[in-house]
Amino acid sequence: MTFGDVPLAGSNGMAFGPRSSGEAKYHQVADRIRAAIQSGELRPGQALPTEKQLAAQYGVSRPTIRSALATLRAEGLIDAQQGRGAFVRLRPATRRLPAPQLSDAVTQSNHRPEAQQHIIEAGPAPARGAVAELLGVEDGHQAFVRRRLITTPEGEPLELSAHYFPIIEKPAGRDTHRTASLLSARMPSPTEAAALRVPDGVPLLEVLVASYDADGAPIQVIEALLPADRYAIYDEQPSGLAVARDQVDAHEQET
């Protein structure tokens, strides 16, 4: 089996074209395999050739092939299974979140009737980074945290959700006067990756939504951690019809 735009070159050389000068061979091999995956030539779940076969196809050494495959694993494009080889990673259906209503989508995620919620933490915990900033406390200051894993009825993880409440002498049921939202991307911690079943190389979308009362005092900060390979942020100007949270991209339906 061969794929990509590289002809078989045996063990005597490789025909990578004009980009070969100054670029590491394993990068070039990774580029060709990546292109085959992204074009659909290699389909999700499909097994890649063995290291020996790939080395013969591209005319490089097996260590070079291993480096190329390691690059693709780090990018979340392939999975390696002990004793079975490498496979194109199965990509879950992508859910679209409408950007103008992103904060609403996050704050209402716990109320979706089809979602299953599992409380995995509740109690005092340090608030870090942007969460602490939005809560108006110093980094590492204690807050009350309620953390949940939200899944489909079949058990597929959808997101990790955490509610941070400041430890202050104010009633919890205050009305929200304003909100602030922050969207960023980061790599998951080992605990987060295990809970969300995120493969190596896949980042998280971190959505923070803070609410404040009429005096400007923080009420809570909601943190939603979404696997970036399962969600897309959608925007349309002028705003059209609302996009369903669980709408699947057409590309994903075709695959």
How far apart lie the N and C ends?
21 Å
Low-confidence stretches: 5-20, 250-255
CATH superfamily of the largest domain: Chorismate lyase-like
β-strand percent reads: 25-35%
**Biggest pleated sheet:** 6 strands, antiparallel
- Gyration radius from CA atoms, angstroms: 23 Å
The total of helices stands at 7
DSSP, total strands: 10
According to CATH, what is the class of the largest domain?
Alpha Beta
Helix content percent band: 10-25%
Shape: elongated
Here the CATH topology of the largest domain equals Chorismate lyase
Q: Main sheet: which strands, in order across?
A: 4-5-6-9-8-7
Q: What is the count of structural domains? A: 2
Mean of residue pLDDT? 79
Q: Supply the helix-strand structural class.
A: alpha+beta
Mind sketching the topology for me?
Elements: H1 25-39, H2 51-58, H3 62-74, E1 78-81, E2 85-88, E3 95-98, H4 102-107, E4 116-126, H5 129-135, E5 142-151, E6 157-166, E7 178-186, H6 190-196, E8 204-212, E9 218-227, E10 231-234, H7 250-254
Parallel strand pairs: 3-10
Antiparallel strand pairs: 1-2, 4-5, 5-6, 6-9, 7-8, 8-9
Helix pairs in contact: 1-3, 2-3
Any overview of this molecule?
The longest helix is centred in the N-terminal third of the chain and has 15 residues, at 25-39. A six-stranded antiparallel beta sheet has the order 4-5-6-9-8-7. A two-stranded antiparallel sheet has the order 1-2. Strands 3-10 form a two-stranded parallel ribbon. Strand 5 and strand 6 form a beta hairpin. It contains seven helices and ten strands. 27% of the residues are buried. Helix 1 crosses helix 3 (62-74) and helix 2 (51-58) packs across helix 3 (62-74). The two termini are 21 Å apart. With 255 residues, the chain is of the alpha+beta class. The chain has helices at 25-39, 51-58, 62-74, 102-107, 129-135, 190-196, 250-254, and strands spanning 78-81, 85-88, 95-98, 116-126, 142-151, 157-166, 178-186, 204-212, 218-227, 231-234. It has two domains: 17-88, Winged helix-like DNA-binding domain superfamily/Winged helix DNA-binding domain (Arc Repressor Mutant, subunit A, Orthogonal Bundle), CATH 1.10.10; 95-254, Chorismate lyase, CATH 3.40.1410.
